[in-house]
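Fresh eyes needed here. Kindly weigh in on this sequence plus structure tokens:
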Amino acid sequence: MKQLSAKQNIWQVIFASSAGTLIEWYDFYIFGSLSSIISEKFFPPSNPDLAYIATLAFFAVGFVVRPFGAIVFGRLGDIAGRKYTFLLTLLIMGGSTFAIGLIPSYHTVGIVAPALILILRLLQGLALGGEYGGAATYVAEHSPAERRGYYTSFIQTTATLGLFVSLGVILVTRTTMSTESFNEWGWRIPFLLSILLVVMSYYIRIRLSESPLFAQMKKEGKTSTNPIKESFGNKENLKLVLIALFGATMGQGVVWYTGQFYALSFLQKTMNIEFVQSNIIIAVALLLGTPFFIWFGGLSDKIGRKKIMLAGMLLAALAYFPIYATMDNIGNINNKQELKSEFRIESNSHRNDKGELVQVTSRIHTYDDQTILQETGDKKEITVSRTNMIYLILLVFIQVLFVTMVYAPIAAFLVELFPTRIRYTSMSLPYHIGNGVFGGLLPTISTILVTTYHNHLAGLIYPVAIALICFVIGLFLIKDNKGAAL
């Protein structure tokens, strides 16, 4: 396979690295985007709330093991090289995602279904734990010091774009078939499509050359023989790892997941917004917010990484309660006046997982602001008016802006914090603990808080507290190394 020149263009590097990372995030987040359906397919139907919490817990498992992936693949990346390590993680991620689309439902194989889901989520988490550090390091080591924040910010867009693409694929699939068909088998299509995306990305990445800094170091025999020991056995480097975790990535993680995944969960499970409409709200907000990753990344080259990241954490912590209170009020049908003349009954039938014909009767209510409530058995689903939909997009967009502030500069910040010989390992662990543990557990913890206290806003206690703690620690302990030599 012919490789690019050692002096390959920075945009070729960014495109190849970003394409693969975007696809890995797409693979990882399909599960979260379809969590409400997955809870119905792979868990016992006797307790829907418990099934949904179990699904979120499985989603969180993929995050919890990311630090282990960071150690395993970080070590490999610091010894064998950046390029081949993130090729390996790409294949593991793609294969696991494709396999999820093939697993039979709980009705077919019983407890085997959630057991297989758990195993594949573990593999996804391990793969993602090795992906980000390699891609960010690879781009940073090709970038000029004065533009490092700008160029690495393109890698930062991939997590949000991966979520956006997953939502887009789900929406296209959902709108090209009936609701019954999508719920029965159509939800598998986004998982199965993953294999095509992975093959394309692998072809793009295999043509890359190794990072010039790592290649030079390897040629001179200066690579680390034990990057794990050097990263965490050395007191000075361990101190930097802990500062990165508790002063930056911990807060960044909860802001990222609140502004995107918790927002989606809140729309669907708390406000009961209709499936397609809730995904459109998130997708449009993500699309509008994504350019700000690049803007804040470039701004960090001028004023530093620290100021932007900490400002994003503080603003998010102060704004979350009023934002979500407003969102909750929009979906509160008790505050709306029903148009009695629009009350109607609708009936339809479909076949369930067992092939049985099921008759479904729904009560449809229309309210004075054209919000529609559909009650089907114990399930309620709200379709909000166009005006309220725009308002919800704005409220989620504001949250995405906070995400761009905390996330855009963090790749450059982490790369500049650690030496080249152990950079992959050192930066990957705090990043994936901050995002995988503190951030990844957020949907589960927040849902449990809401369920326990029967208060729709109780789930915000966790991200607000973590963001404020991280802000205080970062304010006093983070040193900005903007433009430092690598």
Remarks:
- The chain has two domains: 10-331+384-477, 340-379.
